[in-house]
Amino acid sequence: MGVSTVIGVRPAGALRVDPKVVLAFAAIYFLWGATFLAIRVAVQEIPPFFASGVRFLIAGGTLYVFMRVRGESAPTAVQWRAIAVIALCMFVATYGALFWAEQFVPSGVTSVIEATLPITTIVLEVFIFRQQPFEWRMGAAVVLGFLGVVWLVLPGGQAFSWLPCLVILGGGTVWSLGAVLTRSMPRPRSLPLTAGAQMMLGGATLLALSQLTGELQTAPHISLRAALALLYLIVGGSLLGFTAYIWLLARMPATRVASHAYVNPLVALALGYFAAGETLTLRMVLASGVVVASVFLLLARPRAYLPSRKTRSRSSSSS
Q: Would you put residue 120 in left (φ > 0), alpha (ψ -120 to 50) or beta?
């Protein structure tokens, strides 16, 4: 991965900042951070599997077609099978759970639980698949992160249930499983094409799940507010945010780009509190700080674990 110098020193001693880099970081920090509130707004009126399916089918289809028009080759049959497995893990299981749970859990709390994705991934790599050696600093980060989540969801006056929180954590664990498995699976050369195909298949499966669960037996009333939230998820969260993410990965150290993992929850908590009136107690702030600190400890350590470029898209769409 090429690394370009973003901040340099001019002869006169003034700092030179590349505005494109600033905008790209703003996109993955704020556009992705705001997706949690957008999901919360959307699922108050739109059935969760339907909302997530529409988001990823449109965003993934758009990205896939765009890359094919630009000359990228279509995946082979073997690659399509691998894409389907990862789509089930990283979009159907993870985002199906996330959209469903946000009917009951505030967006800020959801973002903090989702911030544990790097932690669950490293647990699978070290203790299940034995792909990395154990390090005490890594172990401390894992323990600290999960203690923060437990503290966050323990009964104590919050207006949400712990069960949807466990669903979010379980869905995130399946995402981590996909992140680990994808490193040994065949995939196309183009990351955007691969991510588009994964989103597209995941979205189609979520729409099928929506039909099977009877979500659309009664047509939902979708207000302009909910429709705009879904549009934001498609354009801002999946297309613009992901494009900025890919652009940064080609120019910056991966550990610096991964800083969105501990900035996104801060953005989501602030937006939930100031824009949506979500409750924010001192305990929630402190517990969130513990989780964010654990992710920082994990990503900032020497030779820090980072998922492969293809999987690091809470595509991620990231959230």
A: alpha
Rg (CA), the chain: 19
d(CA 6, CA 223): 43
**203 with 91: CB under 8 angstroms?**
yes
Helices 94-101 & 107-114, crossing angle to 10 degrees? Answer: 150
Q: How far apart are CA 221 and CA 273, in angstroms?
A: 26
pLDDT band at 304 (very low <50, low <70, confident <90, very high): very low
For residues 46 and 295, what is the distance between their CA atoms, to the nearest angstrom? 32
Q: 186 — phi, psi (to 5°)?
A: -70, 140
C-alpha 18/C-alpha 67 separation (Å) is 27
Q: What is the Cα–Cα distance from 192 to 7, expressed in whole angstroms?
A: 27
Tell me the pLDDT band of 219, cut-offs 50, 70 and 90: confident
Q: Read off the pLDDT of residues 250-259 as tens digits, 9 standing for 90 and up.
A: 888 766 788 8
Other residues' Cβ atoms within 10 Å of the Cβ of residue 270? 15
Nearest to 234, CA basis, from 39, 17, 33? 39
Q: What is the pTM of this model?
A: 0.85
Q: Measure the CA–CA gap between 157 and 12, rounded to whole angstroms.
A: 56
Per-residue pLDDT, averaged over 70-74, amounts to: 96
pLDDT at 216 over 60: yes
**How many residues in the chain?**
319
